[in-house]
């Protein structure tokens, strides 16, 4: 499953970033931050074709030797980034998509919380739980 | 026949007459691919148009494929027998035999794809004229001999070498036939091949199945497609092989091991990288065929084929993308298969492969295309850079000292694995192989290559706008420089990176990068920068406490180091501690001088340990203008606690503050209404925002939140020479600290900067925002007098409040206020006069009685001792005496020499009461000048008087109106006359007290009686006592009203009578009646009259001229003829004059008499003026001269309405046309007594009236 999951605000600062505790957190911060380059590239590429309804899922942003970085952008330009270990070959595109969908739903719930201030980092335990569920291998 | 031609081609075998074939070969090979053919395919694959090319090979029986041969490439798809035999004999003898042998061998190999071509030339025909059979007969023979029902297997080609239409035609027919047959053969043979291949694939689960074998089979298919130029299909074959292999590796990872995989799990011995320069790397292919290939070999070969095909397909960018995937994948697969690899070997392989792919792409694209597609290649560049770096680190090429012997051994091992350079690149100056070898050869060469790659990667990232990636490469370059001992270059890259992370709010990378920067700065000896960075890191929550303490200690160590003043370091306060709150005591932030104003600052110290601060100072700025609100920020009304200013700052515990909260200025809203111009009705209304340009301003790409460490230290400007509030020796504990400052200097001050000094280090907060002001003020003493209750009523004792704000003056015991006494407003002595002293906070401090001493001129009030900035309050009773006459004493001077201001009564616009201003002059102990204060009193009454007459009897009426808002009790109403002792005023009023309610009037009446002559002038004084109701008698205050009455006695009596028309008993409506007016003189000439009329005729009896006037204002009467006239009246008692005037009643009923007016007629004084006949009445025409006077009387309306002839509209004429004009003057009230006033007469309706008129008024 995912080794790192990040939610990034429209302004590109992290709203939420969590990685497997066993791994070097800093490395993932760098990886996710760099992936924003590709996210922006993809968003702007879509923007050029008018009328084309944008797909939220951006697909594989870029592979590295060790990780695959996937991206997803909500309509309000909040970005989700999921980093998956390259050796984890069992994950298919569809599963990544469904992870993003789950993440988006949970994020929407967080935003619906009247006590949440949009733009603040996400502190929700429910959201944390959802993310944890995606980070540990099933079973 | 060479198969490994540039292009693969399907093979055609030709037999028969080789000489003939050779002569036709060129044109055949050229013309065959000219026309496309539609290729219908099995398995529902879409049909394709293909151009067929062919290789022609001479037939040899031993080359015929054996049964089960899988080699498609060398497979003969079509066998052709060529003959130009036209001689039956020759055919029978040799050709047929040869042909049969050929045909049999074909059949033996079950090859059904053949054709016989008979070439006919005219030459051959001519040569053997005798034996010649018709051409067709040979063909027919062949057909019957070989083509069993397959007549199309024999084709005739006529005159192939001639340029005739017939020849062309036959060529076309031949080509078409060849193509069709070739395709048929393809379809059949390929179909069979594919079926075989699938069968083989299905067996892959069986033991003994070998991937390599299968690989060769499917690749054969790929070759065929490539041969047919169906690159897409060829690529599919390789992709399928790729996927199959990948699946096996994955299955291996999942525990499902295939035997054949064993060979791929062998340790990697060669890492020479991809080789993409050959169309087919036969070396590797052979290795695969032999089952000796390693995983890298297989992958390399597979990719090289894919690459070749993709380039044929003009998809070079897919190559780069696939290459990156492949390289990542290979690394993963080797890991998965647990293949043992020499450390660094894979890095070599990847590095070489990256460069090889890039070279290959560069070889097939022009530079412009390359530049435009950086985004596809940059990944490979970056990957290569990365790998080279790790190789460098591995081989000790990055360290300052250079490689150790161990490193060198490793290098040698790595280079050994590269093998020899490939023959393709041996001669080229630059090749991946040479690059790697060179880079690993020396520290300098490595640096050169590494920098070259890094910069190339960075450039490309920049060019395509991937700045973050570029910075990441830069960061890794910085790390390289750090290892090389070049912190200066490293810092530049790190600074750029940290700027980017800071601006986007990524705190962890910020911390990490900043730590590296700190290291650089320390190495560079840039103390100030290092301390600044250390301060940032010391307060960085992302670091461990130990690390933070370390950085904090760095600062403290420096601070304590030396005492050299020139070596002071100024750092930003923001990273050291945050000003979170400021609270003033008192909350108004405004105190008078001498009092203590405390400002409590709350500083959140970010340091991990407590820090001792030698001095904490706030610089303050003296403001000239006073801000309206003190102790709060300008323009911010959100302060919930007065006197407290909250400084908005990110709360580090709550993570980054919302960017929403920091969204610009508050809205300035205004209501607008759009009204229609015609009727002012509301069309629309709305709200406008006046500062949209500020509110709607785009925030530059969203300012990221101020996370604890995502602040960049601002530029510092220290303002020197400012005034300071200081606190010495404070210890700031981690977290919130309270520090209290004390201010005392008078003035209004704005807090500007905050300084904290720790030894050599000074932390500065350059701006305190929102700006905060406080005020220490100094105030002059102030004395005010105001009514205790509004309004102050004149004539009654009233209480006024004295308020003394002491300001900076301390009232000593014995200080006194000196009030100048005035007659019109005496100060009433009271038994005790308590004074209250209150503090500035309105708390009662003390109460004491005042002593008041009055002398003739001055009232002295001695004050109790009162501290400065306190309020002293006391009440005094004063009485404003109501002025009762117009006569006033002359100006007198006050004790202090000022001219007394006369209290003047005047009517006030807000109240019906008459107001009187009273001024007070007070001498105060703190000033040499007198304080002038004014009080306004109101007279509660309005008085009117009038004379009433009944014949000769006279009555005086006084009307007293209460115009105030309170009720009064009145007593002892009296009227006195001063001059005439014999005059008797008999009161007709009640003796008791009377209540006079607010807004009500009281009428009093006296009859005037006299003994002898009636008085011409009366000086009367009305007096009464009044007090608010239900008060003791002693509280009654007098009220006087003086007035003068003149010409009181009755001079004339007027008596009127209406005489019915002759013969009638009553007046009748519409008939003329007579009005008889009799004016009678009642008295002898009085002195006044004599003086007035002195200009009348001296001879004859004294007479005066009167004018009478009959006027009916209610339109009851029509005056016929003259309505006015003049009579000359002798000034003697009982002299009478009768006038008769014709009047006609207009209505029936009891009609009041018409009004009769009598006026004095004063002729002009000059003799030349018109002299009216004394005995005749003035003509109506001449009355026009009197217009003005008549107008003044206001009763000429009837004259006009009755159709009088005199002109009107003289309103704008001058009221007096000079002294020469005669005048009319009314008599004073009571001088003329009208007996028939309000008398009525009965008028009967006209006899023939059949219309009843009812007049209701």
From TrEMBL, chain A:
InterPro entries: Longin-like_dom_sf (IPR011012), Sedlin (IPR006722), TRAPPC2L (IPR044760)
Family the UniProt entry places it in: Belongs to the TRAPP small subunits family. Sedlin subfamily.
GO terms of biological process kind: endoplasmic reticulum to Golgi vesicle-mediated transport
Organism: Gasterosteus aculeatus aculeatus
Record key words, sorted: ER-Golgi transport, Transport
Keyword RNA-binding annotated: no
Pfam families reported for this sequence: Sedlin_N
Keyword presence, S-adenosyl-L-methionine: no
PANTHER family, per the entry: TRAFFICKING PROTEIN PARTICLE COMPLEX SUBUNIT 2
Annotated compartments: Cytoplasm, Perinuclear region
CDD domains: TRAPPC2L
Gene Ontology CC terms: perinuclear region of cytoplasm
Domain of life where this protein originates: Eukaryota
Protein name according to UniProt: Trafficking protein particle complex subunit 2-like protein
TrEMBL record, chain B:
Keywords carried by this UniProt record: Golgi apparatus, Transport
GO biological process: early endosome to Golgi transport; intra-Golgi vesicle-mediated transport
Transmembrane residue ranges: none
GO cellular component: cytosol; TRAPPII protein complex
Lineage top rank: taxon: Eukaryota
Compartment(s): Golgi apparatus
Domain TRAPPC10/Trs130 C-terminal, first and last residues per copy: 1015-1244
Residue ranges of every copy of the TRAPPC10/Trs130 N-terminal domain listed in the record: 9-319
UniProt feature, compositional bias: Polar residues: 638-647
Low complexity bias spans: 650-662, 1198-1211
Presence of keyword Transport: yes
Domain TRAPPC10 Ig-like as annotated: residue spans: 784-937
Region (Disordered) residue spans: 628-662, 1195-1218
PANTHER family the UniProt entry points to: EPILEPSY HOLOPROSENCEPHALY CANDIDATE 1/TMEM1, TRAFFICKING PROTEIN PARTICLE COMPLEX SUBUNIT 10
Record's protein name: Trafficking protein particle complex 10
Provenance organism: Gasterosteus aculeatus aculeatus
